[in-house]
Amino acid sequence: xxxxxxxxxxxxxxxxxxxxxxxxxxxxxxxxxxxxxxxxxxxxxxxxxxxxxxxxxxxxxxxxxxxxxxxxxxxxxxxxxxxxxxxxxxxxxxxxxxxxxxxxxxxxxxxxxxxxxxxxxxxxxxxxxxxxxxxxxxxxxxxxxxxxxxxxxxxxxxxxxxxxxxxxxxxxxxxxxxxxxxxxxxxxxxxxxxxxxxxxxxxxxxxxxxxxxxxxxxxxxxxxxxxxxxxxxxxxxxxxxxxxxxxxxxxxxxxxxxxxxxxxxxxxxxxxxxxxxxxxxxxxxxxxxxxxxxxxxxxxxxxxxxxxxxxxxxxxxxxxxxxxxxxxxxxxxxxxxxxxxxxxxxxxxxxxxxxxxxxxxxxxxxxxxxxxx
Length: 373
Ligand SMILES: Nc1ncnc2c1ncn2[C@@H]1O[C@H](COP(=O)(O)OP(=O)(O)OP(=O)(O)O)[C@@H](O)[C@H]1O
What we know:
cytoplasm; DNA replication and repair protein RecF; single-stranded DNA binding; DNA-binding; alpha/beta; 15 strands; DNA damage
């Protein structure tokens, strides 16, 4: 899939921008605070309807304005698809093929992106929330159902936590309503757990291929999905649902005391192992970085397997963080396959010989100029 064109209107520090991109590697060069990350963010937002940097959409709108508009034209095997997003103080509207979508989950998935920023290098050693966020982002793009189920789960979880607190302070007495919420939560939770397990198996398979090459056949990378339920191979949604219900029933008093839900996918984690040893605790910094790189590259392959199209890769200032060997692996893996946008303040430190005919854009105070070859 290729993002052929992008138009921005009052998005961050861009007043009006209209740009055509190359199908290979697009390098965005500029000094600090000129709008490089804002442009990558625009592509990310166009794909996912929300930013990776802020949960507050208002920040995306130019300070001088009340409305931001992003539109783009993507080219896929099935043809060209125009996308449009409008942000105002009241909310956002999403259009595919000029038709407004009733639900954002219907919009997401048209344009698939993978973002790789320096903080992703800490996916192995960072907090569990980071790995859950990673799973939700990636799997949500590949499956509308996953996206929908996790949205429902989040809202029921919030209600249930509020209700547990109310039971704690005796504002509420009705435990039957708690059971209704537990039932709904277990139903969506089971869907999420089974989907995560299924996607992780597939992702692991691709990550093993990449890691085997990067480690020159010395290391075997495996994933371990850490969840509170018993997860046998091919576990059914129904089985997990009953296990969760059982956990809620047995721990009702404890959960009321704590005033929060203690069981479910919001407590999951993901462990990476190299030759059976946990990379988080035993891996060198180099192995942790290589694992992160293998996982990122595996996402590209998995996305292709699931959707039939390669996603777009957004590299936010990450190449300078990778040594020559890892840069080589990354750039060779994507060469001539994946449309890539990379930001940098300087070309030095980037293995340019591995980038086939890049298109270079200079960014200066929210304006773009293409460097002629
Ligand atoms: N809503 C907004 N309206 C107008 N300008 C904004 C808005 N949000 C951010 N900016 C401006 O955008 C600029 C930051 O741009 P960006 O984050 O893309 O920097 P960058 O080029 O990636 O720099 P660095 O290399 O330091 O990361 C800042 O000058 C900031 O003041």
